[in-house]
Design a protein that fits this description.
The strands form 3 sheets. A 6-stranded antiparallel sheet has the order 6-3-2-1-7-8, with no helix packed on it. It has a two-stranded antiparallel sheet with strand order 4-5. It is 0% helix and 56% strand. With 113 residues, it is an all-beta fold. A hairpin with a 6-residue loop joins strand 7 and strand 8. InterPro entries: KOW (IPR005824), Rib_uL2_dom2 (IPR014722), Ribosomal_uL24 (IPR003256), Ribosomal_uL24_C (IPR057264), Ribosomal_uL24_CS (IPR005825), Ribosomal_uL24_KOW (IPR041988), Translation_prot_SH3-like_sf (IPR008991).
Length: 113
């Protein structure tokens, strides 16, 4: 199970984009990779085509490529530095029933994510 989820703010801890921050756009669980906004940008050659209106498409585009999940770290909401992710179990009562819920916690500050 990945501790990083879509929409999280992460920092790159290794690779050519080390030190950059960005939001997670997509999590690929099968390959253990994440796509981060503004990180690991590659040039992609797109074949020329036409849209329904007749405008030309294609050319050279820069897009974000997936990066391995071990090369990113969640940003602590309090200290704005990288942190590990832990879990805390809470008892929540709804409609007279108690349910155990796992809450993600930043190890650095102890705050909920």
């Amino acid at each position: 199970m990945a501790k990083i989820k879509k929409g999280d703010l992460v920092i790159v801890i290794s690779g050519r984009d080390k030190g950059k921050e960005g939001r997670v756009l997509e999590v690929l669980t099968e390959t253990q990779r994440v796509v981060v906004e503004g990180v690991q940008r590659v040039t992609k050659h797109v074949k020329a085509g036409q849209t329904a209106r007749g405008t030309r498409t294609g050319g050279i585009e820069t897009v974000e490529a997936p990066i391995h999940i071990s090369n990113v770290m969640l940003v602590d909401p309090e200290t704005k530095k990288g942190t590990r992710v832990g879990y805390r179990s809470e008892e929540v009562e709804r409609d007279g029933r108690t349910k155990t819920v796992r809450v993600r916690v930043a190890k650095r500050s102890g705050k909920d994510i």
